[in-house]
Write a structure and sequence with these properties.
It is a single chain. The chain has about 290 residues and is mainly alpha-helical. About 75% of the residues lie in helices and about 0% in strands. It has 13 helices and no strands. The longest helix is centred in the N-terminal third of the chain and has 26 residues.
Length: about 290
């Protein structure tokens, strides 16, 4: 039951993240990339601190050390994605981000020597096929923004990998606060490096960044981190690839991107991939939760 609830929570995350592509696209009209990131991660860090204040009172160094790589990968992923979205469409960005689904199994194999089950591999391949049909243009070209977003997929794959390892050892509340704080600090540093200190934000921009900070970041990463205690990294990546389905759907409904039969087919393939990858397999041992000192 816990695994099913965790998988369901990850689906909710993908719906919210799908809306995040539209929110980012709208917010970029009045904010620079690192302005968006500084505000969203400031909100996330503060909110995470408030909801987990009891856990933070006895925060251990090993928990901080485990959360730092998560924050570094999180920052890299969002920095590359947000900058890249200035040069590509929300739906194409959604596809390229979802490519982390094929990167995660290779990372787990290289670093943990963890074999990927046949259902996981089939689901990963189907997911890539689905998001390709859903979002790529006919010429399959990769521009500057597409290249940055492809790199962002690799960063998010590492974030999923680091989360999957750390959450089995340490408290999700502490890990989430640390990764948000790290991402906020780096966002502020890069905001000054790129000279994005002059804020002229519209009401639409503030609404967009509030959605990104409170809902798309704070709520979603809390759900993701908690859920990955019960869903292995490859399956989590496959479920999270549904973000591209909802990203395209919201782009059609809100930004009036044109929907095609190919996009509908892509959605159906991704949904089938999620069902296959999460169909019943041999039961796994319940992850043991440890709090190292």
């Amino acid at each position: 039951m816990k695994k099913k609830l965790a998988a369901g929570s990850l689906v909710i995350v993908t719906i919210i993240w799908g809306g995040g592509f539209v929110a980012t696209d709208m917010t970029l009209k009045s904010m620079f990339p690192f302005q968006i990131m500084a505000v969203r991660f400031f909100l996330a860090a503060v909110l995470m601190a408030l909801v987990s204040i009891n856990s933070l009172k006895d925060m251990r160094w090993k928990e901080i050390r485990a959360g730092i790589p998560m924050g570094l990968a999180l920052f890299a992923g969002f920095a590359l994605q947000t900058v890249g979205m200035q040069y590509t469409t929300p739906s194409k960005s959604a596809f390229l981000t979802a490519l982390n689904v094929v990167i995660v199994p290779f990372i787990t194999f290289i670093f943990l020597k963890k074999k990927v089950g046949i259902k996981g591999m089939i689901g990963a391949v189907m997911s890539v096929m689905g998001v390709a049909l859903l979002s790529l243009n006919g010429d399959l070209s990769l521009g500057f923004g597409d290249t940055l977003t492809l790199l962002c997929a690799a960063a998010f794959a590492f974030q999923i990998f680091f989360t999957g390892k750390a959450v089995k050892l340490y408290r999700a509340t502490v890990l989430n606060f640390v990764q948000m704080a790290v991402a906020f600090i780096l966002s502020v540093i890069f905001l000054f490096i790129f000279g994005e200190t002059d804020f002229h934000v519209t009401s639409q921009g503030w609404l967009g960044v509030l959605y990104l900070g409170v809902i798309s970041t704070t709520l979603c990463f809390f759900l993701q981190t908690a859920s990955q205690k019960y869903v292995e990294e490859t399956k989590a990546a496959i479920i999270l690839s549904m973000e591209s389905v909802f990203g395209t759907l919201f782009s059609v409904l809100i930004l009036h991107e044109i929907i095609t039969p190919r996009m509908v087919t892509g959605c159906m393939i991704i949904l089938a991939a999620v069902i296959i990858s999460n169909s019943s397999e041999a039961p796994e041992a319940e992850p043991e939760r440890q709090y190292e000192t």
